[in-house]
Amino acid sequence: LTDSPEILEILQNWVPRVSPYFDKEHYMYAGHQIVIQESIEHFGAVVWPGALALSQYLESNQEQFNLKDKKVLEIGAGTGLVSIVACILGAYVTATDLPEVLDNLSYNISRNTQNMNMHKPEVRKLVWGEGLNEDFPVSTYHYDFILATDVVYHHTALDSLLATMVYFCKPGTVLLWANKFRFSTDYEFLEKISNIFNTTILAEFPESNVKLLKATAREN
Q1: Range of the domain at 123
Q2: pLDDT tier at 161 (50, 70, 90 boundaries)?
Q3: 183: which residues sit within 8 A by CB, 6+ positions away?
């Protein structure tokens, strides 16, 4: 964690919505307008700052992180914004989240990618730490990138989340995790990740308290 991170701010690159209702947000990434339907019923159905930060970073650093034709897994995909951006950038994307979030996630991904000449994203259920070997057997599933945004907050599934990251982050895989740091638990999770993976803070967004980390598996 000794490298100096890039200090950035989240650009206001979304279009103000005309509708007064809390339903749709319009964003611009990689030359495409992305329309995201949010829901106040679930934490996972709202766009959080980490998703904006990672989307912006992927768009701006395509030479460093070239997603074209790469296999990308997003865990805790929420509204699907990051998965949609990764798809626009040419990745084979699998977007995952809890069952109650999948309808809205599928809707957003479908409406934003249906008319584009790109790899069609897949939406799948993934409960952290549960059924990983059955649903995503190592012999079949290997990902070039694991993406995660604002998956760490005040909840009880942090050990399961860490186990899920360890399961999917094999040698050769890059984990990119962006998170708004609010609680001591966030920093404790950062410490745990740093103890397991080779970890670098790529960027910080001080106004939003977001840190963006890159992690890779340590060679035995």
Answers
A1: 6-217
A2: very high
A3: 153, 154
Give CA torsion, residues 65, 202, 215, 179, to 10 deg: -110
pLDDT, tens only, 58-101: 999 999 999 999 999 999 999 999 999 999 999 999 999 999 99
- Distance linking the first and last C-alpha atoms of the chain: 20
Q: Which residues, in sequence order, are bridge partners of residue 198?
A: 216
Nearest to 150 by CA among 43, 60, 39: 43
Q: The domain spanning residue 157 has which CATH number? A: 3.40.50.150
Residue 37 falls inside a structural domain: yes
By DSSP bridging, strand 197-205 and strand 210-217 are antiparallel
Closest CA to 47 of 73, 85, 19, 9: 85
| Number of folded domains that form the chain | 1
The token pair at 12 is 């206001």
